[in-house]
């Protein structure tokens, strides 16, 4: 019995790791820019109640910071006031500073969905040579899909972020994989 449970654990969590890894590599562009304008790391907010960034938003900021390449890079923080009166982008920015980030921050504070995150981010990333989108891997893939629909020229500048790490957020990866795959399938219909 214990052996079967262990095998089931390995299969479920192994499958979830595989799905997140694959998703973190899909939907990238073929032509990052070469104008020397740097990169934009877009951080998608997650519904947040209260005046402090929740666990998911804090994790996304940390993943965005580790995703930055040396040199000219900026964080583009997205999210309006969805779960409370304060915009998610403001909470993300506050946490980024608390976390020790001292680089450039640009805020998009009006969006209320992933589609709107991308719409609001477009004017803030148009000049970037390289664009990275940070969220959980399947949600970031959804945002890359939206960017390709809205602005295929900018989608050609997409490069991988560092939101995927083996074993990180292990307990929630299976659930995120199931939900993310369902949402991606609906997009592709």
> What number is the mean pLDDT?
91
Number of strands: 4
- Low-confidence runs of at least 5 consecutive residues: none
Strand proportion, as a percent range, falls in 5-15%
Roughly what percent helix? 40-55%
In short:
With 189 residues, the chain is an alpha/beta fold.
Provide structural commentary.
With 189 residues, the protein is an alpha/beta fold. The chain has helices at 2-23, 55-67, 88-99, 114-125, 137-150, 152-155, 173-188, and strands at residues 39-44, 73-78, 104-108, 130-134. Strands 3-2-1-4 form a four-stranded parallel β-sheet, sandwiched between helices. α1 (2-23) packs parallel to α5 (137-150) and α4 packs across α5 (137-150). The radius of gyration is 17 Å and the shape is globular. The chain starts with a helix and ends with a helix. The model has no long low-confidence stretch (mean pLDDT 91).
Topology:
Elements: H1 2-23, E1 39-44, H2 55-67, E2 73-78, H3 88-99, E3 104-108, H4 114-125, E4 130-134, H5 137-150, H6 152-155, H7 173-188
Parallel strand pairs: 1-2, 1-4, 2-3
How would you describe this structure in keywords?
single chain; alpha/beta; four-stranded parallel sheet; 189 residues; 7 helices; globular
């Amino acid at each position: 019995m214990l052996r079967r449970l262990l095998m089931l654990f390995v299969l479920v969590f192994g499958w979830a790791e595989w799905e997140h890894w694959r998703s973190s590599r899909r939907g990238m562009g073929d032509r990052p820019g070469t104008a020397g304008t740097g990169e934009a790391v877009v951080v998608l907010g997650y519904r947040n109640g209260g005046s402090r960034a929740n666990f998911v938003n804090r994790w996304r900021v940390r993943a965005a910071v580790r995703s930055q390449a040396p040199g000219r890079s900026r964080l583009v923080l997205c999210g309006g006031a969805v779960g409370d009166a304060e915009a998610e982008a403001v909470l993300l920015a506050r946490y980024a500073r608390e976390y020790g980030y001292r680089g450039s921050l640009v805020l998009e504070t009006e969006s209320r969905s992933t589609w709107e995150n991308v719409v609001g981010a477009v004017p803030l990333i148009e000049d970037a040579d390289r664009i990275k989108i940070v969220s959980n891997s399947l949600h970031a893939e959804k945002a890359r899909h939206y960017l390709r629909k809205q602005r295929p020229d900018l989608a050609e500048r997409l490069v991988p972020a560092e939101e995927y790490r083996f074993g990180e957020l292990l307990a929630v990866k299976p659930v995120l994989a199931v939900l993310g795959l369902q949402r991606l399938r609906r997009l592709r219909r």
